[in-house]
Amino acid sequence: MNGAETSTQYDAAFERKAWLLVGFTWIAYCLNYSDRQVIFSIFPILKSELKFTDAQLGLTGSVFLWVYGLCSPIAGQIGDRFSKRWLVAMSLLLWSGVTALTGAARSAGMILTCRALTGVTESLFVPAAVALLANAHRPENRSRAFALYGTGQLAGIVVGGWYGGFMAQEFQWRFAFYSLGLIGILYCYPYFRFLKSFSEEAHVETRKSGSTLAVTALARIPTYLVLCVVSGVFNLTLWLLYTWLPDFLYEKFSLGLADAGYTATVYLQSAVDVDVKNFSGPYADYFTELMERQKGTDYFIGGPRDMVQGTCKDAFAQVTNSAFPGGLLSVDDTLKLISLMPKPDILMTAETKTVDVEQGKTAEIAVSIQRQNGFGGRVPVSVMNLPPRVKLVDIGLNGVLLNETETHRTFTIEALPNAEPIEQLIYVGGDIETRSDLQSVYTAPQAILLKVEPKSIWMVRSDLSTRQENWSCHRTINRAMNHFLTD
C-alpha cells in the first residue's frame, strides 16, 4: 500500500469522525439552549410561589445575557490557550450542575445568582466547540457543518420552552431543572470519551491568535464591528420575545404553561410561508415590502442560507434587510399583531386563591368560566398538580362539570389522613369537548396555593379520647357478657 492510498483512507476515516463530532456537539448545544430557555415558561409559577416581581422576572434574562456577553471574549481567549476538548466537557458539566442547583432555589436572589453562574459556565462552550468543528472540517464542508450544528440552538429553544411549561403544569417546576441538569451530567461521560479519541489539532489551514489578546485584532476589522452591532440588535429583539412571550400567551389567551412555552418558541424558530395578499389594514404595506426585499431568498432550517454559507456582504445585507424593512415594527406593534389571534372559546378563572385543608378534612374550590365565540356547550373541569393522597370527592362520571347554563361551580377536595403536609400550586382548566386537533384545554392563569396542614392538637386529642371511650365501652360489654354466661 503506497503513501497516497494510506493518506486517502486516513482522510476518509477522519472525515467520518468529523461528522460524528457534529452530532455529539449538536446534542450538547441543544442542552445548552434548553437549560437557558426553560425558566421563561414558568414565570407564573415564580410569581405565585417565590413572589417574583416583574423586574426580577426580566432580570432572569438580562442577568444571564450580560454575564454571558462579558464572559464570551474571555472564554474565547481561554479556548485559544487550553484544551478545547476539556473546555467543552467541563462547560457542559458545570452548567448542568448549575441547572440542577436552580431547581433547589428558594428565593428570587438564589435563582438570579444561578442565572449569572449559567452565563459564566455556558460561555466557555461555544468558542471551543466552534473551534473544534472548524479544525475538523475542510473549508468546503464547514458551512454545512456549522449549519447543522446551529440547528441544535433552534431545537434547544423549543425543547426548553415546552419542557419547562410541561413539567410545571403536569408535575413540579423544580423537576424540569433537576432532570435537565441530570441529563447533561450523564451525557458528559460519552461526550468526553468521544472527544478524547478525537484530535483537536487543526487538519486544515488555521492560525493561532498569538500572545496578544484576540479582541484587539478583531476590533480593527470594520465588518466585524458592524456585524456585532447588527447581531446585538437582532438578538435583543429575539430575547425580548423569548423572555416574555410565553407569559403573555399564558395570561392573554389562557393557554396552558406547556402550550404557551411551545407556541412562543416553535414559530420563532421555523420558516413560515405567508401570502402577503391575505394581509390588510395598516400592516399590509409593511409585509409587502418585507417579502419584496426577501424575494428569491433560499431558506434552510428557518434561516436564510446566505447567512450560513454566503459571503460576509451577503450575510450583512440579509440581516439588515430582515431587521430594518421600511419602518421597523415597535414592540407595541408586535403585540398588536399577536393580539389578532382568535379569542379562546372559554376564559377560565380560579376564584379561590388559597386552600387550607387539614389531614383527614375537606375544603372547597370555586371556579368560573366565561364563554365566547358563540360557544354554549358544557365544560368539564380538571384539577392539575394535586399532591399524592389529595383527591376530588363527590364527583360524577364526567368529573367536575359545568353544564350549559352554569358559569360558576364549587367542588370539594379531600386530604387523606396520611397525606403529607405540603404547600403546592395547583391549577384548574376547562375542557372543550371536541374531536378537533386544535387546543381544547384552557387553563386558568391564576394558580391556587394548596396548603395541606397536619392535624391540630385538639383533633389528635379528640381522636384519642374517642378511641379511649370506644375501648371503655368494649370492656363494659365484655364484662356484662361474661357475667351473663357465668350466671
Total domains: 2
Quote the beta fraction.
Answer: 5-15%
Q: According to CATH, what is the class of the largest domain?
A: Mainly Alpha
Rg of Cα set? 30 Å
CATH homologous superfamily title of the largest domain: MFS general substrate transporter like domains
**Distance between termini?**
115 Å
The profile of the biggest β sheet is: 6 strands, mixed
Oligomerization status of the protein chains? single chain
What is the correct CATH architecture of the largest domain? Up-down Bundle
Please outline what is shown here.
With 487 residues, this protein is α+β, with helices and mostly antiparallel strands.
Describe the 3D structure.
The protein is of the alpha+beta class. It folds into two domains: 3-270, MFS general substrate transporter like domains (Growth Hormone, Chain: A, Up-down Bundle); 346-455, Immunoglobulin-like (Sandwich). The protein is 59% helix and 13% strand. It has helices spanning 3-37, 43-49, 54-81, 84-103, 108-123, 125-136, 139-170, 173-196, 214-218, 222-253, 257-266, 284-293, 306-309, 312-323, 331-338, 457-486; strands at residues 299-300, 303-304, 346-350, 354-358, 362-371, 379-384, 390-393, 400-402, 408-415, 422-431, 441-443, 448-453. The strands form three sheets. Strands 4, 6, 8, 10, 11 and 12 form a six-stranded mixed sheet that branches. The protein is elongated. It starts with a helix and ends with a helix.
